[in-house]
Every structure is written in structure tokens, then in C-alpha cells.
Known about the structure:
314 residues; 5-stranded antiparallel sheet; 46% helix
Amino acid sequence: MDVVSDAVAAIRTGRPHAARTRRTAPWGLRFPVSREIGFHVVLQGRCWLLLAGRDPVPLGAGDVVLVPHGQEIALADSPDSELVDVTDDMDDTWVSAPGPADGAGDLTLLMCGSYQLDRAGAHPLLAELPAVIHLPRRVGSRMALTSVVDLLGDELDQRRPGTDAAIPALLDTMLLYILRAWYQDHAPRGTGGWAAALADPTIGSALQDMHAEPAAPWTVEGLSRRAGVSRSAFSRRFTDFVGRPPMAYLTWWRMSTAGRILRSDDDAPLQAVAERVGYSSEFAFNRAFKREFGLSPGAYRRLGRGRQATALPA
């Protein structure tokens, strides 16, 4: 997979959820702090995005809001409207939101939902995202994102055979399109960080190589030669963009990949896991893994089993 897809796959757990809610003015909904990535899409009408300490942001039909770090936000027909807390769990049909939903004012149709995460070892690409991402709908741009939003709205509006499979797939696609749009918008604005790293031909290609084949015997010399630059220039540029030297990043990514394998494949022998991330020696793999996670691969796997067991209904 590519870097963005890998970053999302490394922390995604469970099913994403989405729901529609129909609001007529006056109304206001407060979404509390959460460990999940939240999203909100205006399907019809207009409203305001309210954030503590910031000016209200007007939202129109087709606008998308992503909350990568679970910050508290509010949506309302007016910045002055009374807010009520959304506390009930969302299902895939409707937001069970408190307060009046059928007033006499303008109609707003929203799609809201969340992605479940395991933030342990989250990729720095995601950690770098701002507290809130607002992507306004623009005519002639972000057509792929607009299309998937329209498809989601249609599936939630009319549940048909296959809807239960379509909604999670469309939600996963929407998240990738949102991230892609944000990184594309911000790549030209700076000389460092992950937005610029992904857009840079030299560093971007090296990252793609590492992610495509984490077990390959990569070296700074080999990566710089493939990129067509000197070893010192490559190492310096990589560190400036990514925040750590090339081999340090490769080791981190190998251990993150190993952690994902250990969480998802209980039957994989540790030697096999080691080989899949570039270690011929199980001892060397164990040592590198413990440096990164603070416990051995076997203990990490057992801890994951324990978490799954406590999550099962009695």
C-alpha cells in the first residue's frame, strides 16, 4: 500500500459508523471529546461549525469537516443557538440527537459519523493533522470526494440489499479522499512536514519504497541512489521532511507493521513475523520490537488478546 493508506490501516479498528440527521432551525448539537476520528458532512442546507476559542465557520451543502483527534465541536443553525449534547450512540440510519428536530425554520440535512482507532503507535502523518479539517465544496474540484459523499448520502437515505457492506467501504474511501485532499492542498505551503514529504519526488518515492517492501534490505546509500541524489543530501532532506533519519523511520515502520501483524494474526510464528519485516534473526527482531513498544512481541500479542477478550460481551 501507499503511505497514506498504510497510515490509516495501521490504526483503524472495527467498523466505521455514519448516520443522517434532519434539523430544522433553531437547533444546535455539541459533539463531545472522543478517541475516534469524527466527520460531519452537510448534505443539504447550511449551518455553522463552532469551536472553542475560534470564530464560527459557515458551512454549506457539500462541505466536509474531519476531526482527526476527537476534539469537541458543535454544529448549529446559528452561532447563537442553544447547544445540546449528542450522547447516544450512532447507528447506520440516524443520529439519535436530543432536542427539537422539526421546528419551523430552514432545513439542514447532516451526515455524521466516526472511525474507530487504536492510537497506539499512530503514524506521525496522522499526528501532524490539525485539530479540525474543513474542506469546502468547490465546483470542479475534489470530484472524487464529492462523488463518494453523494453515494453515502444515497445509501443512508434508501437502505437496499448490500447497503450494510457498501456503507463501511464508502466511509473508508471517504477518509482517504479527505486526507488526500488536505495533503494536496497543503503540500505547496511549506518546506517541511508530511504534506511536503509526500509531494516531494525524492522523499515521496523513498517512502513509497519502504512501505511497499518493508522487509527489503534498504540502506541510505541504496535509497539515495534510486532517488538520484547524494547520500548526504538525501539523508538531510529526508530528516528535515519526516522528522527522523531514513533508517530510524524504516525501523519504526517495520515495528509498526509487526505490531499490526501480531494484533491481526494470532497464529503467525514470531520468526515468520520477523522475516516479514526484514529480520532474519528472531532475537534481533525481539530486541528492536521491545525498544519501540516497551515489551516483547509475545507479550504485545498476549496484551492484544486480553483487550479483545474484555471487549467481548458477557
